[in-house]
Amino acid sequence: MIFRRSRPSPAAPEPPGGPADGRVSLVKRPRGDDGGLRPPGGAPAGAVHPTRARQSPWDRVKYLLLLTLVWFVLVWASMADNPLLPFADAAREQARAAAWVFALAGLELVRQVHFLAGERSGRYHRFWTHRVFGGFERFTHRRFRPWTRFRVWRATVWLFWIAVLAVVAGKVLDTSPVLALFEAPALLWRALPFLLQIVFLFFVIVIQFVGLFWSLSRGGVETYMPDDITTRFADVWGQDHVVERVRENIVFLERPQEIEARGGYVPGGILLWGPPGTGKTLMAEAVAGETGHPYVFVDPGAFIQMFMGIGVLKVKALFRRLRRLALRYGGVIVFFDEADSLGRRGALAQVGPGGRPAGGRGPAFSAAGCHGIGHLSAETRWLLARDALAGAAGSAPRPGLADRFFMGGGLNGGGGDPGTLQALLTELSGLKKPRGFVNRYVRRLLGMKPKPPPRYRILVMMATNMPQALDEALLRPGRIDRVYRVGYPSRAGRVRTYEGYFGRVRHELTAEQIDRLATITPYATGATIKDLVNEALITAIRAGREVITWADVMKAKQLKSLGPPEGVEYADRERHATAVHEACHAVVAHRVRRHLEIDVATIEKGAEYLGMVSSIPVEDQFTQWRSEYEADILVSLASLAGERMFFGGDSSSGVSGDLEAATRVAMLMEGFWGMGSTVSSHAVSTQLGLGTPGAGGAREAERETRRELADRIEDQLSTLLERAERLLADDRAAVLAVAHALETHRTLQGEDVAAVIEGRRGPLVDGRVYADPAFARTLEEYHRAALAAHDGRTPFHLGPPPLPAGAAASGAPVSSSRSRFPRLGPSG
User: Fold this and answer.
1) Alpha helices for 593-681 (secondary structure H)
2) Spatial distance between the Cα atoms of 411 and 240, rounded to a whole number of angstroms
3) Model pTM?
4) How many CB atoms neighbour CB 58 within 10 A?
5) Residue 523 region by backbone torsions, left for phi larger than 0, else alpha for psi between -120 and 50, else beta
6) Residue 464, strand partner residues
7) Region of poorest pLDDT, from 92-101, 128-137, 178-187, 456-465
8) CATH 1.10.8.60: does it fit domain 491-560?
9) CATH 3.40.50.300 residue window(s) in the chain
10) How far is residue 458's CA from residue 173's CA, in Å, rounded to a whole number?
């Protein structure tokens, strides 16, 4: 029997003569009817059919097959009573004794022929429906409600088949049908031990698989009660703009009627994406702490299993738990950490958050700037994006992580269980079933409408640093309604974070020093700031102090950004050459850069460098200008210009990285950013095959275009190299001064480098001594001795000249460190 859901019109007219197909039809909602379920066979209100609805083959033959089975049971009973009776004699005997079976079969056959004729002929159908049965239908329609007629008919069918069963049982037991009904429970009781054995064996087999899958589906999900979480929004520092938006979701979770009463729905999903350590997990804990609801943490690898289907079971079990918690506590927060491990379909998804393409982008779209194509039509923007992606796909990029990922795939992607993600998508937005066995089955069996499922207040939060790996279906509204980027804290956010973590320890840093620390640590996250403060505390404890000083913070910063030095000792000649190389970078950077300042300069060898000069932004900046890129190129070329100047035209292989950086920036300026001698984009020109036509056709034209671009890049680099040479010639004494300070102290902070160049006192180095002309001549003589050793490749054991008496450094030499924060300036 089929139950279908219908909501009939309150006053739908009834077809003339009664229902069109001769069956019970709800033409209007009767008094006391809830308008939910419709009796089987009931047609929608106002439905008119010229012929009878066609039946399925099973509906045509099911009763005939049942009567045939009844007759064979009767024949078998006769043969069981008389083992010598052959089948043919038993069949003839039952044909006479059980003629009622053939009579019922004949009536059923006539009924099916009647139905078949009604399906083929509209006139025949209307005759029997309107004229023969129409009056009876109209009478029952007026006297009884539809559900009453349906229940009476169903009870009649049950009584009929119980009577048939009683007759058959009486024949088998050789007694009357009434006594057979009373003896049937006793027979079932005698057969119960055998049936229980079969059921027990079945459950023994099933329980093995159930236990295996149950044990494999455990783990990876932790539930925290409201009293277990002490994190609040006041503990989330540096992400105020995201916290304010997340507060809205809490308001709707606590007071959903404010939006549902106006026809809206409560957003139930939040995606937090951004670099690692920016506070995404902490923000989810704060949400749970502020609301006082249970907090369910889903481990990133919880759904990665070696057997297919385990992930689906874990998803189903997780959401059953969430629904129970939501009903018990009025709401629940579930947090999926590293959601890309679960939400990945295939390799990388086709789009990122907001429907933007997630594939590789050409250089034309890689520079930060305004939405320069926003004024174009949607079709034009799509064409530009498609062409840019096609150009990027047509190139041959360097093999990297993305390429390896596409080749291998992930466990939940190309090589894992795809049903895990599908189960998650279904749970996030699928139809909710009514709760309870009685509600779902018993009420439906009794013809009652099941109670609708309750509203589950579940806030789904996800975090990832790979949003481009999430499937588009997961990010659509209705599943993940809001997508927030939790990026690097701003300068004000970093100050607030430093104040929060320094407030937990004893220190003597001033507000100006904390502000300075926030300035020289751009792109620092909450996790890195916490680690830096902890490392400064360890440094102070190692020195036998309980209070953190500025020197402790600087040492901790150098150690965290660079790591411990390798402890390699340079030969005196190579040490001086390395110091001059880095001093040229530092002097030119100090003179021409205004958007960056020197963070640290060192000549101590690290894992990936011999020496380096690191620069950091002086303020949060989101665009760059031509003058700034030219300054970056000047700093890169300063090493080559300086080595040629100070070593008689000679240069080392150490400038290779500087030249690569300078050439790359110049190429982007000339070919893509409109900062060179031409305006057109080289990427589009190459893609469209534009160029100077030559004898070799398109390939020759492309080669000519590239030669022209290379010539423009070379001209720009040559011009800037000459400018760098002039700057170094004018600041020769400053270069030798910084080189001497580097040889003396190995590592210098940016403020100390500036102090040496400007001849003033710095935090750790007193630069006033380098303004003394006599000491400047001493440095020049020292360099000439080093140059003679370099030219003759002779031993050079002369150390850097000692500082004059009374001009000792302001502080002890500090250990080296290289900043790992992203920076715009090159390193030497």
Assistant:
1) 626-646, 656-671
2) 36
3) 0.58
4) 8
5) left
6) 273
7) 128-137
8) yes
9) 221-366+417-485
10) 60
CB 509 within 8 A of CB 473: no
| 74 CB neighbour count, 10 Å cutoff | 22
Per-residue tokens: 356 = 């933007």
Mind listing the pLDDT tens digit for each residue in 652-699? 888 888 888 889 888 888 888 888 777 777 766 666 655 544 445 556
Three-state secondary structure call for residue 3: coil
- CA dist 234 → 240, 491, 500, 526 (Å): 10, 18, 10, 14
Classify residue 475 by burial, with Cβ atoms within 10 Å: 0-12, 13-18, 19+.
buried
Helix 750-758 with 732-745: angle, nearest 10 deg: 140
481 neighbors 267 (Cβ within 8 angstroms) = yes
Q: How far from chain centre, in Å, is Cα 754?
A: 45
Q: Please write the tens of the pLDDT for every residue from 250-283.
A: 777 777 777 777 877 777 788 998 888 888 888 8
Residue with structure tokens 């404010």?
258
- List where CATH 1.10.8.60 sits in the chain: 491-560
DSSP 127: I
Query: Is 749 in a helix, a strand, or coil?
Result: strand
Size of the chain, expressed as the number of residues it contains:
828
Alpha helices in 593-646 (DSSP H): 626-646
> What is d(CA 658, CA 585) in angstroms, rounded to the nearest whole number?
10
C-alpha to C-alpha distance for 505 and 534, rounded to whole angstroms: 9
Residue 523 structure tokens: 């792109």
**Which element (helix H / strand E) includes 458?**
strand 458-464
Q: What are phi and psi of 524, to 5 degrees?
A: -75, 135
What is the chain's Cα-based Rg? 42
Cα-based distances in Å from 406 to 214, 255, 400, 416, 422:
33, 45, 10, 14, 21
> Distance of CA 32 to CAs 3, 28, 29, 148, Å?
19, 12, 8, 11
Distance CA 559, CA 548 (A): 16
CA dihedral 438, 444, 450, 453 (to 10 degrees): 70
pLDDT per position as a tens digit, 567-600: 667 777 888 889 999 999 999 999 998 888 888 8
In the 8-state DSSP scheme, what is residue 697?
B
CATH 1.20.58.760 segments of the chain:
572-620+634-657+722-792
Cα distance between residue 253 and residue 247, in whole Å = 10
- Identify the DSSP state of 233: G
In this structure, are residues 161 and 52 in contact, taking their beta carbons and an 8 Å threshold? no
Tokens 């329609």, located at residue: 141
Distance, CA of 693 to CA of 702 (rounded, Å) = 9
CATH number at 572-620+634-657+722-792: 1.20.58.760
Residues 398-403: contacts with CB under 8 Å, at least 24 apart: 402/348, 402/360
Tokens, residue 710: 């290379």
Residue type, 563: G
Alpha-carbon gap, residue 597 to 538, rounded angstroms: 28
* Pairing assessment for the beta strands 4-5 and 37-38 based on DSSP bridges: antiparallel
Q: From the CB of residue 149, how many other CB atoms can be counted at a distance below 10 Å?
A: 17
- What is d(CA 413, CA 419) in angstroms, rounded to the nearest whole number? 10
Place of tokens 């959601």: 339
Burial group, residue 224, by CB count within 10 angstroms (0-12, 13-18, 19+): middle
User: Which has the higher per-residue pLDDT, 264 or 235?
Assistant: 235
Q: Can you identify the CATH homologous superfamily of domain 221-366+417-485?
A: P-loop containing nucleotide triphosphate hydrolases (3.40.50.300)
Quote the pLDDT of residue 547.
92
Q: How many Cα atoms occupy the beta-carbon half-sphere of 354 within 13 Å?
A: 5
Q: List the structure tokens of 512.
A: 């100006």
**Which of 794, 767, 800 shows the shortest CA–CA distance to 782?**
800
